[in-house]
Write a structure and sequence with these properties.
The complex is a heterodimer of chains A (about 140) and B (about 110).
Chain A: H1 16-40, H2 61-83, H3 86-92, H4 96-107, H5 114-131
Helix pairs in contact in A: 1-2, 1-4, 3-5
Chain B: H1 3-28, H2 37-64, H3 67-87, H4 95-113
Helix pairs in contact in B: 1-2, 1-3, 3-4
Classes of the chains: A mainly alpha (about 140), B mainly alpha (about 110).
Amino acid sequence: MQLESPARPRHWWLNPYLHLVLNGVLVSVSELLLKAGAVATAGRASPTGLGWTGITSLTSGWVIAGILCYLVSFVNWLQALRSIPLSIAYPVTSGAHVLIPIGSWIFLGEHVGLLRWAGILLIVTGITFCARGENRP
Amino acid sequence: MTAAAFALVVASQIFVVGGQVLLKRGLNRTHVRPIVKNAVASQLAGGVALLTLWFLIWMGLLRRFDLSQLYPFEGLSPVLLVLAARVILHETLTWKVWMGVALIAAGTVLVGLS
């Protein structure tokens, strides 16, 4: 199926690339919130039979905030995907592999080694290539 | 990693790629007039269902394995997805996309190794 190119959005806040960036940021923020919530509730006893799930974490405000962030990010993703080819939008979401280690370093005090920084640099370069990959007439 | 765990990893990759392709197919239909609401809704729902399955399998894998063991496979998913977008959705891929995906895959593996 050959598609006509979707019309340019009328407002700047409908720009699909803005939503793609928001999606990446919100996914990363939600992962950090979920990790903080999981740590805060780690020792809690689970109802019988549900120990394999993380269900007791649902009482944590961090986890609830993480889930809300994730839901909003999905709306951003749908708006981005409406007009950006999947083969470009999806690789760009790998930005989460960059933002999450940096966020873990700043907010969670986790260590980021030299090899990891090298990997982050490669991913950023790759994303730059993909983001410019759209075949514009 | 056992054969069963490897099969779960492969299944999770298939679900994430299949889910995203379905979402995109549904959204592509919103640009074709007239919009067939049922077709859009069923493909979006199918996409969300596959992504939910992916999430459950991924959580199960995370509980049993270190993230560093699973991370290299994360690097594989952009490659598989771009291939699926080419073959199933007939998206045109420029050399920049291939280059970018290769760099991202290599970088993800490095992040996982460290």
